[in-house]
Amino acid sequence: MTSLQQRAELHRQIWQIANDVRGSVDGWDFKQYVLGALFYRFISENFSSYIEAGDDSICYAKLDDSVITDDIKDDAIKTKGYFIYPSQLFCNVAAKANTNDRLNADLNSIFVAIESSAYGYPSEADIKGLFADFDTTSNRLGNTVKDKNARLAAVLKGVEGLKLGDFNEHQIDLFGDAYEFLISNYAANAGKSGGEFFTPQHVSKLIAQLAMHGQTHVNKIYDPAAGSGSLLLQAKKQFDNHIIEEGFFGQEINHTTYNLARMNMFLHNINYDKFDIKLGNTLTEPHFRDEKPFDAIVSNPPYSVKWIGSDDPTLINDERFAPAGVLAPKSKADFAFVLHALNYLSAKGRAAIVCFPGIFYRGGAEQKIRQYLVDNNYVETVISLAPNLFFGTTIAVNILVLSKHKTDTKVQFIDASELFKKETNNNILTDAHIEQIMQVFASKEDVAHLAKSVTFETVVANDYNLSVS
């Protein structure tokens, strides 16, 4: 089998398992169990691989817990961020799952133990609450303990049977790939709510390339509306690890999605000291203000959500919003995310942000914010995409590219609305489409019906309308 066939077969198997084990429970409501079990298996195998360190004479899973010394434990936590005893490993728990009448209690104890192993260590915040959504007492699993255990055993056995390769065979990315596949399928089936936590990989690829374009290295990459982390991780897939020096940063408002994002980082083999995902409202409780500005920012924030805006009198003096002299409307926070990203961007940096088209032509506060962005020469490019590229919305959205190091005062417009391939219910961008967009983005040349660079004076004469037309 080719690697592509292998991957397709793995995806088919995973989705079948996800559907088989959920019973009558809605897939969206059951996702944390399948994703959580995949994560549990990953960190178990990752941890065993670290302890064994390529020594074939050691099988960590077969060791007795009593042989683990405090020094071994301390060293492991400092390196990996957590500790798992042999008896707590996924393979050992899954092996006895069908006959363990204490399975739900045992799993809960193990998850608590893994989490508490990080207490007092630098990794504490990165591990804390990771298993919070894997509720082994939930009635979603069944009404009786027996029913709950049977459902949990089915999940563990299903994930146990996945052929995810050997950790030493460089197939580590199969775990991350499986996780992303599951998340994208859950998102596709969840409609509107799915689109809010997952950006399709083909669009993520374009956004990552736009933000990282021309950079031989960036200090770190940031997403102010991180969702499940898929957009940040595209940068890892697109560029060598050494290019992103200090790692991956993000903030997410939804607790379940925040946990998915942190798991996603681990599953893509990003160590706890190379990522920092925070929980909270980016617009009103922003993290990372004391950090150095970011060289690359990617984001697909929620479209036109309500926010507190002018009801909070302190926000107009906030350093993120004050320079524009006006706040984004309370009913449409889109430009609040844009101004937040601009404030967090370094002098050499670029931000690529998915935006609702209305913000580019409406009057009032949004026009004043556009004027501020154009007058200060922050708008590099506006790209209009084809409709129906995202989950949960058929609307054709735009990508706004901001830069603090432009070499001229023109604004580039790219009309990519005809660049798509129809697949099942959604449209997708192919690699050829992405390459075509990136070529005109890089050259800034005018191409009939595709790209045009417009002078500052023309934008001003058009009342700062930034619609691609």
Write the layout of secondary structure elements.
Elements: H1 3-22, H2 27-52, H3 70-80, H4 90-95, H5 103-116, H6 124-127, H7 145-160, H8 173-190, H9 192-195, H10 201-212, E1 221-223, H11 230-238, E2 248-252, H12 255-267, E3 275-279, E4 294-299, H13 334-344, E5 345-355, H14 365-375, E6 379-384, E7 398-403, E8 411-415, E9 421-423, E10 426-428, H15 431-443, E11 451-454, H16 456-461
Parallel strand pairs: 1-2, 1-4, 2-3, 4-5, 6-8
Antiparallel strand pairs: 5-7, 6-7, 8-11, 9-10
Helix pairs in contact: 1-7, 1-8, 2-7, 2-8, 2-12, 8-12, 10-11, 10-15
Keywords: Methyltransferase, Restriction system, S-adenosyl-L-methionine, Transferase
EC number: 2.1.1.72
Catalytic activity: a 2'-deoxyadenosine in DNA + S-adenosyl-L-methionine = an N(6)-methyl-2'-deoxyadenosine in DNA + S-adenosyl-L-homocysteine + H(+)
How would you characterize the overall build of this protein?
With 469 residues, this protein is of the alpha/beta class. It folds into 2 domains: 3-172, Up-down Bundle (Ferritin); 192-461, Vaccinia Virus protein VP39 (Rossmann fold). The chain has helices at residues 3-22, 27-52, 70-80, 90-95, 103-116, 124-127, 145-160, 173-190, 192-195, 201-212, 230-238, 255-267, 334-344, 365-375, 431-443, 456-461, and strands at 221-223, 248-252, 275-279, 294-299, 345-355, 379-384, 398-403, 411-415, 421-423, 426-428, 451-454. It is elongated. The mean pLDDT is 89.
